């Protein structure tokens, strides 16, 4: 059972997994070592490589570790939404999003949680002063930089890393964010939640992280995921612009 953290409360780290047998044990151990007060929920989509069973073995001997078994691969977004609902039902005060592949260093978690004392949403950013990106090929660096630039311009959000997936959300902020409208699956999910947080007017803070390319296991990133993000950002951007213009018109002509 988690122990409340000063100024933040009870925290659940949600780690979505699909075929992360090479990583899941290590990542859970590292989180337990740096943040012994938090609970962990591995949200596994029935990985064929036995990730779920490895997580069960840890849960059997450690009351801080829990496993949510989902029937089949249904995308990162759906796994996170299920994890958020699990946290809400059990009265957690904050949830953390963290990849299983080691790209999000558990050692950065105390910094993110410290920032959450004065924020509703903390984004671990790869693109703010003091951040580092280790071992990423140029193609991935460019994709992330351009994707974030596009998201920032299209959606008018003061966020340097809208696609990043290392975050803390207070559950009160998630309640204010109209999550029932969420429709995206891949990277777009992180952008969509950034947008909803921005629109809900909750306090968003970014902290620099050290992001490292995964060392083991296969990436689930695909051209389809990139296409989904581009398409959705464009649609939201046009919609938001329409709303802004509509509002401006309304102001002039009451
Ligand atoms: N439960 C669940 N987890 C998923 C799914 N797709 C990806 N994940 C997990 O989400 C996290 C991020 O996925 P990655 O494959 O690392 O994708 P990425 O970080 O966007 O891409 P890379 O930077 O290339 O690693 C990992 O922990 C994956 O195991 C899914 O459909 N269901
Ligand atoms: Mg990854």
From TrEMBL:
<dbReference type="GO" id="GO:0009247">
    <property type="term" value="P:glycolipid biosynthetic process"/>
</dbReference>
<dbReference type="GO" id="GO:0016020">
    <property type="term" value="C:membrane"/>
</dbReference>
<dbReference type="InterPro" id="IPR039528">
    <property type="entry name" value="DPM1-like"/>
</dbReference>
<feature type="domain" description="Glycosyltransferase 2-like">
    <location>
        <begin position="13"/>
        <end position="175"/>
    </location>
</feature>
<dbReference type="InterPro" id="IPR029044">
    <property type="entry name" value="Nucleotide-diphossugar_trans"/>
</dbReference>
<dbReference type="InterPro" id="IPR001173">
    <property type="entry name" value="Glyco_trans_2-like"/>
</dbReference>
<dbReference type="Pfam" id="PF00535">
    <property type="entry name" value="Glycos_transf_2"/>
</dbReference>
<protein>
    <submittedName>
        <fullName>Dolichol-phosphate mannosyltransferase</fullName>
    </submittedName>
</protein>
<keyword id="KW-0808">Transferase</keyword>
<dbReference type="GO" id="GO:0004582">
    <property type="term" value="F:dolichyl-phosphate beta-D-mannosyltransferase activity"/>
</dbReference>
<keyword id="KW-0328">Glycosyltransferase</keyword>
<comment type="similarity">
    <text>Belongs to the glycosyltransferase 2 family.</text>
</comment>
């Amino acid at each position: 059972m988690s122990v409340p953290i000063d100024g933040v409360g009870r925290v659940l780290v949600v780690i979505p997994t699909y075929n992360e047998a090479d990583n899941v044990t290590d990542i859970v151990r590292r989180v337990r070592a740096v943040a012994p007060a938090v609970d962990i929920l591995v949200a596994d989509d029935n990985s064929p490589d036995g990730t779920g069973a490895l997580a069960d073995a840890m849960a059997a001997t450690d009351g801080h570790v829990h496993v949510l078994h989902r029937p089949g691969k249904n995308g990162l977004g759906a796994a996170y939404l299920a994890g958020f609902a699990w946290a809400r039902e059990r009265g957690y005060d904050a949830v953390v999003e963290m990849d299983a592949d080691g790209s999000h260093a558990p050692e950065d978690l105390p910094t993110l949680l410290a920032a959450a004392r004065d924020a509703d949403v903390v984004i671990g950013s790869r693109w703010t002063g003091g951040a580092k990106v280790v071992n990423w090929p140029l193609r991935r660096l460019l994709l992330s930089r351009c994707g974030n630039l596009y998201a920032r311009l299209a959606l008018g959000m003061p966020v340097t890393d809208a696609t990043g997936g290392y975050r803390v959300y207070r559950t009160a902020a998630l309640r204010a964010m109209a999550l029932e409208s969420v429709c995206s699956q891949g990277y777009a999910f992180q952008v969509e939640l950034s947008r909803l947080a921005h629109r809900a007017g909750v306090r968003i803070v970014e902290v620099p992280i050290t992001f490292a390319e995964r060392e083991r296991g296969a990436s689930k990133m695909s051209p389809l995921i990139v296409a989904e993000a581009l398409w959705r950002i464009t649609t939201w951007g046009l919609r938001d612009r329409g709303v802004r213009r509509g509002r401006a018109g309304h102001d002039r002509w009451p």
